[in-house]
Amino acid sequence: MLAIPKDAKHPENAYAFINYLLEPQVAANNTNVTHYANPVKAATPLVDAAIREDKTIYPPEDVAAKMFTYAINPPEVDKLYTRLWTEIKTGR
Predict the structure, then answer these.
(1) Mind listing the UniProt keywords for this protein, alphabetically (predicted)?
(2) pLDDT in tens, 35-72
(3) Sequence-ordered alpha helix ranges (H) in the chain
(4) Considering only CA atoms, which of 28, 29, 50, 52 is closest in space to residue 40?
(5) DSSP state letter for 63
(6) Which terminus of the chain is more solvent-facing, meaning fewer CB atoms within 10 Å of its CB: N or C?
């Protein structure tokens, strides 16, 4: 995830850096080093074959279609989640 702080002194430089990271060759190089998939479709052919063909990194479309993310929770739910998770981790 990339973010630009609200009070960034040079947001135009931050946007330029993000645009650089999204260039296909740069995104592919990052994937080749980190072994994490990237969202730049034009980068996929540039990723090392061993990584590109690893189904745990780039799952097939039928598997990807079943994936989901959690919705953003309201603050009161986040607070409850954090409290319960802390209780589980600390055993209290």
Answers:
(1) Signal
(2) 999 999 999 999 999 999 999 999 999 999 999 888 88
(3) 11-21, 24-34, 49-52, 61-64, 75-90
(4) 28
(5) H
(6) N
